Amino acid sequence: MTERWKPHVTVAAVIERDRRYLLVEEHTPDGLRLNNPAGHLDPGERPEDGCAREALEETAHHFTPTALVGLYLTHAAATPAQPQGITYLRLAFSGELGTFEAGRALDSGIVRTVWMTLDEVRASAPRHRTPVLLQCVLDHHAGRRYPLDLVYTHPSAVYARR
């Protein structure tokens, strides 16, 4: 029997304020890279809740998703640890930036947050952690917004984490 293909599900916050986008600079195996505040969806978590959690953990800003920007599929190249590579399915959300928790430690690996214009995001593409970062920002800039209920989470998928 062959192994079933299972993409890794990630959630990302596309946060814009005053025509600038909030990104994080983080340590990766490929050096310092830029990304949307993003991470893996945890077991038992609704996608919009995972997005809010990741935004807080990586930026110290509370974030409330209000719309889905898009779904993005990408494949990372094979490595010795992952000889088949990894396919990611990203759910990107826009929303309302909330309060900032001064003094809150950022997630391990996050060096800092940066606010960038669309042109700066474009120019920094060689430093993007994922090739879909720019597409998420471009889709947001183009006004793509879908209702949150486009992604239905059945109650059986939401449970208390152990």
From TrEMBL:
One of its GO terms (molecular function) is hydrolase activity. Coiled coil: none annotated. Its EC number is 3.6.1.-. Pfam families: NUDIX. PROSITE patterns: NUDIX. CDD domains: NUDIX_Hydrolase. Residues 6-138 form the Nudix hydrolase domain. Its cofactor is Mg(2+). Keywords: Hydrolase, Magnesium. InterPro entries: NUDIX_hydrolase-like_dom_sf, NUDIX_hydrolase_dom, NudJ. The keyword RNA-binding does not apply. Belongs to the Nudix hydrolase family. NudJ subfamily. Monomer. PANTHER family: NUDIX HYDROLASE 23 (PTHR43222), PHOSPHATASE NUDJ (PTHR43222:SF11). This is Phosphatase NudJ. It comes from Hydrogenophaga atypica.
